[in-house]
Amino acid sequence: MLDNIIYALTHVFDLKIILFMIIGVVVGIVVGGLPGLSVTIAVALILPFTFGMDPALAILMLLAVYCSGIYGGSIGAILLNTPGTAASAATAADGFALTQKGKTGQALGMSLYASVIAGLLSGIVLLFVAPQIAKFALGFGPPEYFTLAVFGLTIIAAVSGKSLAKGLVMACLGILVSTIGMDLLMEIRD
User: Which keywords does this Swiss-Prot/TrEMBL entry list (predicted)?
Assistant: First the structure.
C-alpha cells in the first residue's frame, strides 16, 4: 500500500497536474461562491473539458473543483448570509455574525483552514479505512438489504412527525425512483 501512495505522490507533483488543479480550484471557488450554483453544477460544467485528458489529470482536476467548490460556498454564507452550497448552511450562522462584527477576514480564514484540515484528515482516514469498508459491504446479502430498507422506512416515519401521509408519499416516491434502471433479468443472472 505504501508503494501505491508513493507512486501517486510522484504523479501529483507533476507541473502539468498542479496547473490543472489550480485551474480547478479557481473554477470551484468561483462557482461555489455564487449563490444558486452548486458544486454539482461546477463539476458538470467542467466535465466535458476533461474528456480528452489523461484520466489521472482529469480526476484530480474534478476533485479540485469539488473540494474548492465546497469551500467557495462558505464565501457567500459568510459575506451575504446566503450559503452557496448546502454544506455551508451552518457556516452562515457563525460566519455572518463575525462579518457583522467586522471580522470578515477572520471568518473566511477559519472557514478555509477548517475546510483544508477536514479534507486532508478525512482523505487520510478514507485511504486506510476504505478497503475494510468495501470488504464489509461486499458481504451484504438479502437480509442486510432488507434490514436497511426497514431502517430507512422507520426513519421516514420518525421524521415525518404530524404529517405522516406526506412522509409516506415521499417514501413511495423514493422507492419508485430507486427502481429506475433495475433490470430483473440481470438480477436473476447474477
Answer: Membrane, Transmembrane, Transmembrane helix
Q: Which three cell numbers stand for residue 138?
A: 461486499
Any residues with CB less than 8 A from the CB of 2 and at least 6 apart, and which?
Answer: none
Instruction: For the chain, list residues with pLDDT below 50.
Output: none
Residue ranges of domains in the chain: 2-138, 142-189
State the Cα angle at 176 between 142 and 144, rounded to 5°. 15
Residue tagged 486532508 (cell numbers): 120
pLDDT digits 0-9 by tens, 24-72:
999 999 998 887 788 888 899 899 999 999 998 999 999 999 999 989 8
Burial of residue 65 (CB within 10 Å: 0-12, 13-18, 19+) is buried
Helix H segments across the chain? Answer: 2-12, 15-33, 39-46, 55-80, 89-100, 104-138, 142-160, 164-178, 184-189
